[in-house]
Amino acid sequence: MMLRIEHISKSFGDMKALNDVSFTVNDGQILGLIGQNGAGKSTTFHSILNFLKYQGKITWNDQVINETVFDKIGYLPEERSLMPKLTIQQQIIYLARLKNKSAKEIRPQIDLWLKRFAVKGVEKDKIKDLSKGNQQKVQLICTLIHHPKLIILDEPFSGLDPVNADLLKQAILTAKAEGAAIIFSSHDMENVEELCDKLVMLRDGQVVLKGTVHDVRQSFGRIRITVTTDWSQEQLQLLPHVIKVERQEEKRYILSLDDEDAGSEIFDQLTQGKYIEEFSQQPPTLNEIFRLKVGEAHE
Amino acid sequence: MLVIGPFLMFGITVGAGYLGGKSGGTSDEIAVISQQSQLRDGFAKANKDVVMNNVTDKKTATKKMDANKLAGYLVLKIDNNRVTGQYFGTKSLSSNLKVKVNSYLNQIQQQLNLTNAQLSKQQLQSLQQKSQLKETIQEKAGTNNLVKTISYWITVMMVYIILITYTTITAQEIASEKGTKIMEIIFSSTTAIKYFLEKIFGILLVILTQILIYLVGGWGIYIFAQNSSLTKGFLKQYNALITSVLHNILSINLLYLLLGVVIYTVLAAFSGALVAKAEDASKAAQPVIMLNLLAFFITFPFQNNLDSIIVKILSYVPFFSSYFMPMRIINNDASGMEIILSLLVLIVSIILLSMYIGKIYQGLMLQTDDSSFWKRFKRGISYNK
Hints:
The complex is a heterodimer of chains A (299) and B (385). With 299 residues, chain A is an alpha/beta fold. Chain A is 34% helix and 29% strand. Chain A folds into 2 domains: 2-218, Rossmann fold (3-Layer(aba) Sandwich), CATH 3.40.50.300; 224-282. In chain A, strands 6-7-8-3-9-10 form a 6-stranded mixed sheet, sandwiched between helices. In chain A, a hairpin with a 2-residue loop joins β4 and β5 (63-64). Chain A is globular, with a radius of gyration of 23 Å. The two termini of chain A are 41 Å apart. Chain B is 66% helix and 5% strand. Chain B is mainly α and 385 residues long. Chain B has 16 helices and 3 strands. The model of chain B has no long low-confidence stretch (mean pLDDT 81). Classes of the chains: A alpha/beta (299), B mainly alpha (385).
C-alpha cells in the first residue's frame, strides 16, 4: 500500500514548476516535503490531489487518484479557510459529509476532537467568532475526523504556538499508528526531523535530496562539531578544515568542517590531553542542510 | 428577509393605508333619510357597504358630517308619483355610487309607473322586454388591451426582478469563494462538476421555495382582499380582468421564468468564477446584469409589434426567450409547437452550458491570476490541461 509519484513534471507557461519529481510514501509512514517558497511543494500536492494535469504518473495503491478515493484523503491547505458564517459543528459536518460520512456518525465525535485539540469554543460557536489559532485547529479536525488513509498537510505548523504544535504532532503520530500515509510540508526542520521517516527536498521544482532523515544527514558526513571550550571564536577559526564558527552561547560553539576526518585532530588540539566539558562530532542538522542546499542555489 | 420582503412591504402599505384612513380622512359612508321607510330600507339593503344604517335623520347626519364620520346623506322622497333623491355631502358622490342611486331611483319610478298605469299581464310583459348588446372582439396581434398590457408588465417585471436578485446573489457567493482554500478542500472531496451542479440545484431550490412562498402568500392576500371592505368592491368590479391576468401569469410563463432563472444563474456562477479575486465579488454579477438589462429593455419597443422578425428570433434565443416567448404567449402569438421548440432550445442550452462550465469550474476557481479578463479565462481553461 503506497503513494507512488513517478517522474512528474508541470509547467505554467514558460515556468517549470515541477521537473521529474519522484518519491514514494508507504502506509504508516511520514514524509516531509521541504523546500523554499516557490520550490514546488504546493504544486506537488495539487498534482497528487488531481487539481492539475501533469506529465508523469501518480498512483495510490496502484490506482489513479480521483473521486473514487477522495473519501480516504484528508487535505489541509497552506492558508486556512473555513466558512465564517457556519458554526463549528455545521462546518465539520459539512466537510465530513463531502467525504461520505453521515452527520449521525460524525456529530458524537466532534466534542471529543474539540477537547483533543483543546479548541476554545463549543460546537455552536460560529467560525468567525473563533481566534485564528482555534480556526486552524477546527480545520485540522475537519482534515482528520473521517480517519483518512492518505493525509496531505501543507504547512500544518505555521502559526501554531509550541503547545498547539505538540497537539498536532500527537495527532499526526496517532494517524501514523492507525496506518495512514502522511505527507507534510514545513519550513520548521525540527518538526521534520522529529516526525518524518523520510524527506524530500525540492529546489526550483527538482528533487535535490531524498531519503530517510538519518541517511540524508549521514550523507553529508560528520562535519559538525559542537564544543564547549575556553578558546575564542578567532582561535577556533584557525583550526584545520574549519570553514565556519558559530557562537551558540557563552563558551559553546558550532564548528563546520570541510572534511569529517579532521575531527580527531581538532579534538587533540582542543583537549591537549586534558578534560573538556563538551565535544561532539555529528552530521549537520536538517536546518543546516537546508541552508546549505539553498545556498548552493544562490552561488 | 429577501423572501418575506414583499409581504412586509404589503403589510406596511396596507397597515399605513388603514391607519391613514382611520386617522385623517373622512368616512366614505353615507346616510339614507326618507319618510317612506320602505324606500330607505330598499336602498340600504342593496348597498350595505356604503350606507350607515343607524343614521336616519338630517340632524344626526349633519353632526356626523361635521365630525368627518359621514361623507353625506341622501334624502329619498316620493311626491305626486315622482321619485326624487337629493344628496348633501362634503364631496360629490363617487361615479359608482351615483350609478347605483340612479339605477335604484329608476327602478322604483318604473314600479310606480307600472302600478299607476294598471296594465294587463301581457302589456306588462311586453313593456319588460329589454334590448340586448352582444360583443364580438376581433383578436389582433399586439398588446392592445388592458389584460395583455398588465400581464406583460407583471411578467417581465417578475422575470427581471427575480433574475437580478438571484444572479447577483449567485455571482457574489461564488466570487467570494474564488481562490480561497476552502475550494481546495472541497475539490479534494468531490469533483468540481458535481459541486457546481449541486450548487446550482441548491440555488434553484431556494428560488422554487421563494416562488412557492409568493404563490401561497399571493393567494392568501387575494383571499384577504376578497373579504376586506377596503378592496372587496374593487376585486368584484375587476374580477374578469384579474382572472385573465392571473391566467396569463400562472401558465407556462412560470416555466419560462424558472428556466430563465436557471440559465442566468449558471452564467452568473461562471461570471463569479471569473473574477480576479474574492475581493472583487461585488463586480462579479455585472456582465450578467447587463445581459439581463439588455433583454429586458429590448422587449419595450416590441410589445406592440409582435410581428417583427426580431421578436420571433429572440423568442428562441436563450437568455432572451424568457422575456420574448412569454410576451408572445400572452398575446396568443405563439403556437404550441413554437413554445415546445423554444423550451427545448432553452433546456438543451442550460444542460450544455452547465456541463461546460462545470468542466472548467475547478480551473477557474483555483487560479488566482490577477491579470486581464481574457488571460484569466484562458488560464482557467488551461489550468487542468
